[in-house]
Amino acid sequence: MFNVNRQMLTRGALAAAVAIPATLFAGFALAQVEGQPTPGGLGLPNMVTPVGLGTQQFYNMVLMPIISFIALFVLGLLVYVSYRFNEQKNPIPSKLTHNTPLEIVWTLIPVLILLFISVPSLRLLAEQVEVPEASVTLKVTGNQWYWSYKYPEDQGGGFGFDQMMKPESELQPGDLRLLSVDNEALVPVNEVIAVHITSNDVIHAFGVPAFGVRMDAIPGRLNQTWFKIEKEGVYYGQCFFICGKDHAYMPIVIRAVSREKYNEWLAQAKQKFASADSRVRVAAQSH
């Protein structure tokens, strides 16, 4: 009877070690404000892309249960060893130095754990780096300390603009300090967006947490990533590399809208930014 109860307790402890972290951190993620940092938030943010959701599930359902179980198991071993093998219970210490089966076990188990983790992680990595056919392509260039966006002409664009952080004096109700910008980049929802990323000066990193996306912006090199936003909204990111004194002041803002609103914005933005570019070129030629 005692052995049966002990087995039931052991199985219950294992189930709790897996279920509690998964439930807890999934709950923390659901408590996040979508698309932006949450004061006091814990865990990964709410994801709105297939890659982001895959990353969140991998973290909550695979990594956290394994990490929590290992931590609890090691803690239990430490408590057991401290109690079972203290000086009072073992005045004459054992002289055992080797145990071949035990050494095989503690070598084999970590290898099996890593192999178990590698299968979903490699599948997720392949999904991140293999860019599907895109309906919209953005070229994003990092500068000290702002971002430049270009929309290709063959997709209804043919214009570009700079995205700079709004100073506190220009913030409007609903704007976020250190995150809101003067020109938001718009993309259509539920469509694959390919992003070509480079830099004009030093190494930057383009990252939007809610997309599960982060890619280095390197001078002289064109890197590529993608995302497919499944929900309309405004999503904030930042430069993820320390790129100089104003590194903390080059946020990223991407607004996902319906295809109809995106087409309307393209027509307006083409007039606005194309005319602005022409004025800059005329001014440069006059000098």
From TrEMBL:
What compartments host this protein? Cell membrane; Membrane
The free-text cofactor remark is:
Binds a copper A center.
Q: Domain (Cytochrome oxidase subunit II copper A binding): give its ranges.
A: 133-268
Task: List the CDD domains hit by this protein, alphabetically.
Answer: CcO_II_C
What keywords are assigned to this protein?
A: Copper, Electron transport, Membrane, Metal-binding, Oxidoreductase, Respiratory chain, Signal, Translocase, Transmembrane, Transmembrane helix, Transport
Query: What does the entry list under GO cellular component?
Result: plasma membrane
Q: Does the keyword Oxidoreductase apply?
A: yes
How the protein sits in the membrane?
A: Multi-pass membrane protein
Reactions catalysed, as given in the entry: 4 Fe(II)-[cytochrome c] + O2 + 8 H(+)(in) = 4 Fe(III)-[cytochrome c] + 2 H2O + 4 H(+)(out)
Q: Which cofactor does it need?
A: heme; Cu cation
Q: Which PROSITE patterns match?
A: COX2, COX2_CUA, COX2_TM
Q: Does the keyword Metal-binding apply?
A: yes
Q: Which domain of life is it from?
A: Bacteria
| GO BP field | ATP synthesis coupled electron transport
Its function, per the record, reads:
Subunits I and II form the functional core of the enzyme complex. Electrons originating in cytochrome c are transferred via heme a and Cu(A) to the binuclear center formed by heme a3 and Cu(B).
**What's this protein's family per the entry?**
Belongs to the cytochrome c oxidase subunit 2 family.
What is the name attached to this protein's record?
A: Cytochrome c oxidase subunit 2
Record gene name: coxB
